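Late entry, written up from scratch paper. The run itself happened at the end of the previous shift, but nothing got recorded in the book at the time, so transcribing now.
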Amino acid sequence: MAGKTNLVIGYWNNFFTHVPISLATTERRNIDIKGALWNGVLS
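Output as recorded:
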């Protein structure tokens, strides 16, 4: 990682990216518990 810290690794448009943790956690996303994504997690 070339000495990089305080990052998370993301995959965007077929590329791995380094995203600062502060940027990745600035906005909280909600999951619809009646939606397809959550049903897939439960199954």
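The first strand starts at residue 7 and ends at 12.
(Scratch paper discarded after transcription.)
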